[in-house]
Amino acid sequence: MKQTRAVTSRPTALVVALAVLVICLLAGLMFGAAGISLKGIVLELLDRVPFVSVDSGLSPVERGLLFQLRLPRVVLAAVVGGLLAMAGAGYQGVFRNPLADPYLLGAAAGAGFTATLMIVVVQIDGLVPLAAFGGAIGGVLLAYALGNTAGRGGGTATLVLAGVAVASFLSALQTFVQQVRFEQLQRIYSWILGGIGGDWSQVWLIAPYALVSTVVLLAHGRLLDVLSVGDDEAVSLGVNAARVRFVVLCAASLATASAVAVSGLIGFVGIVVPHVVRRLAGGSYRVVLPLSLLAGAAFLVLADLVARTVLAPAELPIGVVTAFIGAPFFVGVLRATRTVDT
Amino acid sequence: MSSIEVRNLSVALDGRPVLSGIGLSARGGEWLAVIGPNGAGKSTLLRAMMGLLEAQGDVLVDGVPARSLKPRQRARLMAYAPQSPLLPPSLTVSEYALLGRTPYISYLGRDSRRDRDITESVLERLDLSALATRPLGHLSGGERQRVVLARALVQQAPVLLLDEPTTALDLGHQQQVLELVDRLRLADGLTVVTTIHDLSLAGQYADTMLLIAEGRHVASGPVKDVLTRSLLARHFGAHVRVDQGPDGRPLVNLIRPAPPSSGTVPDGSSGTAPDGSSGTAPDGFPGTVTRGHPGVATGGSPDRS
């Protein structure tokens, strides 16, 4: 049994990732414009557990800060980071390409276009997330439809090229709309750079999609492993490769759209987190998917913490922080594990 | 033991016929080698048999048309290893081998204890246990080929389709891999169909042969009827001499078409008597492999490079 233990799961890695996530979540709750003590947070959270009643010693202001500002923001950062990293891992599996990221098929350009339209033309800020969500899904659908008409075999290369075409086209449209209403440029730009707004309504808005896509993606880890040996062998093993690819693409795109809707375009998480996970814990998608979810969540909570504290009271765009922390960290992991090729 | 039969198989790619009316049959436990010049359609034949390509004609396993089977059922009867399998570098050997259990696991199911036990026993059998947790990116060529074989065996299919199992292996590893396939075939009663471009190797291991050229059937039957000088000259454009090895199997030797006047080319007529030493062709030509007796392993641990 000793050898095949590695096959089933890697509980230690999961426990470590979970612990890291909890630490990041607590740090995200503690630090900010006004600090809240760790003890206060833990007791206050315990107090919210049914049938538990403890006195946290937090003032009403601190309590409001914790539950109305910090907690939704930290939760949202965790959800968005987890979704992006997991979607990135899913895309990499489907395309068998380590450079695939969640925005590969036009999700970013689609969301950018519709969000710009909403900001510039309709001008209802509350509907920007919904518009971005629809745009992201629409971009991917367009790429998928185009890829299937162009390459009847459903080959992944055609699909990627279709994604490139759709993304360029939608970006051009977005730029056009943006130039027409020049005075809105700053708002559009700050949306594109990404940021975690963080109130509970945004969390509830994406929760159902986040849940569905997470469950579907996590359930397909084994089948992504089968896909990783090539379509021919997958089919010879009795797996309908095209169907698995379609289902995973749908779920990963839904996850991406959910993330984009509430956070704009945050780069780097979707491509780097799965690679770090793969380097540290092995290449099986049964491990890579859940670990990417946890590590992506932890990473974005941390990035958001940095984004809102470094230049306080001003905020850095979170996309700047993910690249700024992520890139050196990634290089470090690449160097430390250079013997394993991914 | 399961027999496999192909009737009147035709494949067209982009409207161009690649295979036309190919038939073959291998009895249960038999080793059939498909040979032919480059571009003859050998790999296409295996892929079509596996249902990976649109094809006309029938593939029957034990008389049952493969077409009538569900993909998972078919995958329990036929296992396939492509010429250049994709080996994800960060997957471990045991994770990769376990993929062979896929036909036995439901769509969203998990592998059972039994699946893991079978995988482990196959790894043990192929002397891969020590490598179980090693990433595929860290394997040598010979180890990679054994791992691919392990994945196919974990599938527990009675029919094994191997596309050029010895490509890119050196002479010794070619022999070890084929010996291994043969040992497993005899032990488990597997029916083996391989494409193989090295005719000497093919002649050493196969029971029967199918020669195809330009997508058409040219000859089939016992090895000695297919590996003939005239057939090889006509369809491979090769100048060869076919000798009989010590065990009666044909040995194919390349002869330079226009030998220089001096005696640099070994002269078959000089009568270098076979001395019985296996591994050397009668004329002292290096590079031909003579097969050990069936069922006798050539060494407990192949490929300790």
Lay out the secondary structure:
The complex is a heterodimer of chains A (342) and B (305).
Chain A: H1 5-8, H2 11-30, H3 38-48, H4 60-95, H5 107-122, H6 128-150, H7 156-180, H8 185-193, H9 200-219, H10 221-227, H11 231-236, H12 241-263, H13 269-281, H14 285-309, H15 318-336
Chain B: E1 4-13, E2 16-26, E3 31-35, H1 42-49, E4 56-61, E5 64-65, H2 71-77, E6 78-81, H3 93-98, H4 113-125, H5 141-154, E7 159-163, H6 171-188, E8 191-195, H7 199-205, E9 208-213, E10 216-222, H8 223-226, H9 229-236, E11 240-244, E12 250-254
Parallel strand pairs in B: 3-8, 3-9, 6-7, 7-8
Antiparallel strand pairs in B: 1-2, 1-4, 4-5, 9-10, 11-12
Helix pairs in contact in B: 4-5, 5-6
Describe the model:
The complex is a heterodimer of chains A (342) and B (305). Chain A is an all-alpha fold and 342 residues long. Chain A has one domain (8-336): Orthogonal Bundle (ABC transporter involved in vitamin B12 uptake, BtuC), CATH 1.10.3470.10. Helix content of chain A is 75%, strand content 0%. Chain A is built from 15 helices and no strands. The two termini of chain A are 27 Å apart. The radius of gyration of chain B is 20 Å and the shape is globular. Chain B has helices at 42-49, 71-77, 93-98, 113-125, 141-154, 171-188, 199-205, 223-226, 229-236, and strands at 4-13, 16-26, 31-35, 56-61, 64-65, 78-81, 159-163, 191-195, 208-213, 216-222, 240-244, 250-254. Residues 267-289 and 292-305 of chain B have low confidence and may be disordered. Chain B has 305 residues and is of the alpha/beta class. Helix content of chain B is 28%, strand content 23%. Chain A binds chain B through residues 1, 3-4, 6-8, 96, 219-220, 222-223, 225-226, 228-230, 232-233, 235-240, 278-279, 282-284, 339-342, and chain B through 47, 50-52, 70-76, 78-82, 85-92, 94-96, 98-100, 102-103, 105, 107-108, 110-111, 116, 119-120, 123, 129, 132-133, 135, 137-138, 155.
